[in-house]
Amino acid sequence: xxxxxxxxxxxxxxxxxxxxxxxxxxxxxxxxxxxxxxxxxxxxxxxxxxxxxxxxxxxxxxxxxxxxxxxxxxxxxxxxxxxxxxxxxxxxxxxxxxxxxxxxxxxxxxxxxxxxxxxxxxxxxxxxxxxxxxxxxxxxxxxxxxxxxxxxxxxxxxxxxxxxxxxxxxxxxxxxxxxxxxxxxxxxxxxxxxxxxxxxxxxxxxxxxxxxxxxxxxxxxxxxxxxxxxxxxxxxxxxxxxxxxxxxxxxxxxxxxxxxxxxxxxxxxxxxxxxxxxxxxxxxxxxxxxxxxxxxxxxxxxxxxxxxxxxxxxxxxxxxxxxxxxxxxxxxxxxxxxxxxxxxxxxxxxxxxxxxxxxxxxxxxxxxxxxxxxxxxxxxxxxxxxxxxxxxxxxxxxxxxxxxxxxxxx
Length: 410
What we know:
This protein is α+β, with helices and mostly antiparallel strands. It contains 15 helices and ten strands. It has a six-stranded mixed barrel with strand order 2-3-8-5-7-6. The longest helix has about 40 residues, at about 20-60.
């Protein structure tokens, strides 16, 4: 067994002549443990919220989305697009034409994003899982239908199954505005409301309405153009590899975005908040590790006679320093391991039992309890952070205070 490690281990667990040293050592371990628990639980909660947001967006956003790098629309009949659609990894591909328009129901009106889709859209996303009223229906033999967000429906005072149709106004993009009669400068289409969805995301719930793509083309005077192609892959398909393959086929004229990139701002904000919180807790951990400096300094003073004995037996200064360095590492290491274990247990309990609630009233939020998700990468980062800071905290008393201490023992 490594001699410095063996002696350091005996020092850590043996009873000291001065009880204050035992107390300071325990305080050091407990401080590191509490800070480690906070790091594990906080990062896991952020992972839980990140997963929750991903699940909400996945109900509406496709796995992959093709958009033009310049301009707004493109023709989907090009050979490159058709080659992508016919890839064996692609299960469904839907043409989308999206524009802003004014929607009006009786005396209420609102600017909304009109998303024209085809019948394949319901296979690309989990639209049925977010419908709170009505059904997903785009058209039949008689009329066109729309499915709109719950916030937009509330603003307009409309719901699924209402007899009166919704009016959609869009400016004629290929004509000049008639100042003498501005009303003639707008195209008008009617849709009946088939359903209402709720993604629990204001950007969708407050402003989106799904309508047939044929109606959107008539409304905005397009022939075959689309603003995007939305794709769903077969299960067990490598998303990253398929995305790269599609991008290589399309070249620089198009962008291929996964769900993370489609909602890049939201995900980046979550990541920034997560790691800023991590830095703040790491600073608190650094303060807690200052106890290691005091603990090691007092231990070095108490073990002065032991050090003298080891020196007379032939131990050099390097071996003596290693003993106390191992002592500091073990204090931080034990605190980190115990903290990680307790943190994992607490996260699992929260995951299964939902001990900490988001509010007092059930159903007031999307979920009742704080979501948690353990990630092995985060646990490794926490352990390495505690170990590195603990190493630096132990290095100071051993290298600088120990130099003077070792001179006095000779």
